[in-house]
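Feature request, filed as a ticket because there's no other form

It would be nice if the structure record came with a short human-readable summary line next to the tokens. Right now we just get the raw output. Example of a typical job, pasted below so the devs can see what we mean:
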Amino acid sequence: MSATRNGKMWRCQFYYKDWQGVSHKKNKRGFKTKAEAEQWERDFLQQQQRNLDINFENFVQIYYEDMEHRLRENTMRTKKFIIDLKIIPYFKKKNMNEIKASDIRAWQNALMKKGYSETYLKTVNNQLSAIFNYAARYYDLKDNPCRKAGSIGKSHGGSNLWPLKEVEI
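Raw output as currently delivered:
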């Protein structure tokens, strides 16, 4: 690791190769401790590798960077809110290629115990499934563990208005 002291603060400075094989120098300052600087460097290099031996939280950052250019601002804000609040805390430190259908089921059960509405459960589950679909499509994840685990919730809320019954006069 290349963390150096810069006055009272720490910085990290290193070289890496991007997706095209071009070498770049990266310099980041303002860390309070050497450990923070080294952790930031490890996370950055892990994201640059573009393989699935990466923790879930770092992969989500890659997902965000790609999707920000493809989705509307409000859609992206909603997606980030749900993922940051309901999904990342559970899968934060697990590697993408180590998350199994049983882990997804345990997460789904924990969500259902919290008493959320059926439509909200479906929405949150769809966000996790979207992340794994992205990994399967663009990063060669073997299969989506969300598909094996199955879905939760309902796409339409329980309303007394649908379907309408005809009233006899």
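Something like this underneath would help us a lot:
Residues 56-149 form a domain with the DNA polymerase; domain 1 fold (CATH 1.10.150.130).
The chain has two domains: 3-49, 56-149.
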